From TrEMBL:
<keyword id="KW-0489">Methyltransferase</keyword>
<keyword id="KW-0460">Magnesium</keyword>
<dbReference type="Pfam" id="PF03492">
    <property type="entry name" value="Methyltransf_7"/>
</dbReference>
<dbReference type="InterPro" id="IPR042086">
    <property type="entry name" value="MeTrfase_capping"/>
</dbReference>
<dbReference type="InterPro" id="IPR029063">
    <property type="entry name" value="SAM-dependent_MTases_sf"/>
</dbReference>
<dbReference type="InterPro" id="IPR005299">
    <property type="entry name" value="MeTrfase_7"/>
</dbReference>
<dbReference type="GO" id="GO:0046872">
    <property type="term" value="F:metal ion binding"/>
</dbReference>
<dbReference type="GO" id="GO:0008168">
    <property type="term" value="F:methyltransferase activity"/>
</dbReference>
<keyword id="KW-0808">Transferase</keyword>
<keyword id="KW-0479">Metal-binding</keyword>
<dbReference type="GO" id="GO:0032259">
    <property type="term" value="P:methylation"/>
</dbReference>
<protein>
    <submittedName>
        <fullName>Uncharacterized protein</fullName>
    </submittedName>
</protein>
């Protein structure tokens, strides 16, 4: 049975309106919300294990676009401020930007001179030098030498699984977990996340120094029920859009039945239990917050006025940027424009009735 393949999982890199670079404002809102956690973690790490001349940082799932250098800048900014306050010489920073090999690393590399120029302009001689390298590969595999990393960061990535779970072949009429899915489907998705996240923690524990810190944020769900609206509505509406095309004869129903996403929204109880059972890290803090589907509806936009069609289009572009490569691979490129036109309409109608939000789980950990 053909399913969504992680081998074609990459954000849209084409220089056009539907690229990830032009449609990552929702992820930027998540980064802004987690910035206080990032600052506090770096400050605490420096107070406990000041590493001397060079701090090594990994950003896992960096993608390509305006968000790629956000964590590195904030980390450098925090380090410079702390060192000024304590009259320390600012250390050098080595940042490893990781994503799958299909990621648009060429654009990332072309952006490095601009990032360095911004650091020089903002920090002058007060900040240390920042060295940036790309590390293509899955974060479900080893990426770095033993005991080499001081800080690991990942935002809006760990809800993507290493593969579509086994045992979801009978999930007909759905592309993800839904109220009509069988218990076997729920269990298969939950088990795949448990295996993937446990492996992720074990691999990072091999790569990090004792006392190193890790900050993760991922899309989860607000309650233990795996059919909660903040978990399933996004994909239920995409399924509905696919069946609109089935009704028009543009898509085969069997193709929808055979497509399942390598994605999972855990609840915080699942995340906590896996961290505790795996045992490599001490859980310092776990927080949950919400962000609206429409990135324009945020804490910083006080003049926001809901417009059904615009909100639907905004969110449809976000989802298209993240899933188009998989949908192209399975259904063919010819249906994509029609699919997301329908999806934008369904999302707009949904948001006019109910302001469903994304639940974001933030985890701060220390390496044992």
């Amino acid at each position: 049975m053909a399913m969504a393949s992680v081998n074609v999982l990459c954000m849209n890199s084409r220089d056009r309106d539907t690229s990830y670079a032009n449609n990552s404002s929702l992820q930027k809102n998540i980064l802004l919300k987690t910035r206080p956690f990032l600052e506090d973690t770096i400050k605490d790490m420096l107070s406990k294990i000041f590493p001397g001349t060079c701090i090594k940082v990994a950003d896992l799932g960096c993608a390509s676009g305006p968000n790629t250098f956000f964590p590195a800048y904030e980390i450098m900014n925090t380090i410079t401020r702390v060192c000024q306050q304590l009259r320390w010489e600012s250390p050098e920073l080595q940042v490893f930007l990781n994503d799958l090999p299909q990621n648009d690393f060429n654009t990332v590399f072309r952006s490095i001179p601009g990032f360095n120029a911004r650091l020089k302009k903002d920090k002058g001689d007060l900040g240390g030098t920042c060295f940036i390298a790309g590390v293509p590969g899955s974060f479900y595999e080893r990426l770095f030498p033993n005991k080499s990393m001081h800080f690991v960061h990942s935002s809006s990535s760990l809800h993507w699984l290493s593969k579509v779970p086994r045992g979801v072949e009978n999930n007909k009429g759905n592309i993800y977990m839904s109220k009509s899915s069988s218990i076997d489907v729920f269990e298969a998705y939950s088990e795949q996340f448990r295996m993937d996240f446990s492996k992720f923690l074990r691999l990072r524990s091999e790569e990090m120094i004792c006392g190193g810190r890790m900050l993760l944020s991922l899309v989860g769900r607000s309650i233990t029920d795996p059919t909660s609206k903040d978990c399933c509505s996004v994909w239920d509406l995409l399924t509905k859009s696919l069946f609109d095309l089935v009704a028009k004869g543009l898509v085969q129903e069997s193709d929808v039945d055979s497509f399942n996403l390598p994605w999972y929204n855990p609840c915080k109880e699942e995340v906590r239990e896996i961290i505790k059972k795996e045992g490599s890290f001490n859980l310092n803090k776990m927080e949950v917050f919400e962000v609206n589907w429409d990135f324009e509806d945020n804490d910083y936009n006080k003049n926001y006025v809901f417009e059904k069609n615009k909100s639907g289009q905004n969110f449809a572009k976000i989802i298209r940027a993240a899933t188009e490569s998989m949908l192209n691979n399975h259904f063919g490129e010819i249906i994509i424009n029609d699919l997301f036109t329908r999806y934008a309409l369904h999302v707009g109608e949904h948001l006019s009735r109910e302001r469903t939000k994304y639940t974001i789980i933030v985890v701060l950990m220390t390496m044992n």
